[in-house]
Amino acid sequence: MKKLMLTILATWICLSAASGNDLPARTIRVAAVSFVPQQYHLQDNANQLEKMFRLAAEGGAKIAVAPEGALDGYVINEIIAGKIEEERIKEVAVTLDSPVMKRFKTLARELKMCLVFGLAERIGDDIFNCAVFLDDQGTICGKYHKMQFAEGYHPAWWFNRLGQQSRAFATPYGRCGIMICNDRWNAQLAKIPALDGAQFLVIPSYGSKSQAQDEAVLNRGRENNLPVIEANVGVTLIVDNNEIVAMNRENEGVTFAEMTIPPSKPIDTQQRDRVEQAFLQWRKHEMQRRYKETMKSRQEKNSP
Length: 304
Prior knowledge:
Elements: H1 2-19, E1 26-34, H2 42-58, E2 63-65, H3 76-80, H4 99-111, E3 114-123, E4 126-134, E5 140-145, E6 169-171, E7 174-178, H5 188-195, E8 200-205, H6 211-224, E9 228-232, E10 235-240, E11 243-248, E12 253-261, H7 269-302
Parallel strand pairs: 1-2, 2-3, 7-8, 8-9
Antiparallel strand pairs: 1-12, 3-4, 4-5, 6-7, 9-10, 10-11
């Protein structure tokens, strides 16, 4: 009888999740990590990232989020500015089955903690600004490629390809959506994973440390009634119950907070796809406009 009741309960939970019926909210301890990664120092950055994740685990976090470009040092700006050769990014771009990724999969299992961090992902001849989510068993639950660049975009930029899709994905603590840095300024890029059933958002960043960026992150949470963990270099903040509940502006440190993950909700595929297509249409023109501005600024700076 007991076995039958457990089977019925497990079936109900699966059906409830699939149909979007409410499951109980739960509160977990989370961490946002900040440190300044060194450009083109993959192993040094990996060592520092492991150190910060261990501090997060010591503080009781179940999920720890680290910045954009945590492994490569975020080298794109220097390449686009013409200060560094494009080919050098290959020194720090990694595949998801590389030794450094296996190292963090092992670390996630050891710490029994979910790890989120940014890297330059190599796929064939292309490189993407990527963030990965490892669960507490070291499995990649999901990944995301940055979809909006401050510097604009050119089709020849094999070293900085645009992401083409945003989807939420299952984790041990509910469905998660990812944005990366400049994405956080665009309400559509939070709405897409929210419509895809996201119960919380994570934002690895390496950019503005202004009050405006704080407000942008808070607004993305409020607009979708979702908690948010942002790990920006020099700004770590956590949004819960539509308020910033923890913040730190140190370049190196770990910020902790209790975060309430809401019940599961239905996935609205039609509206999700409409919002995503509207964004992609807007992006075609906006990335061209930004690219022209970036090249104009580069030319002016390089003029004698």
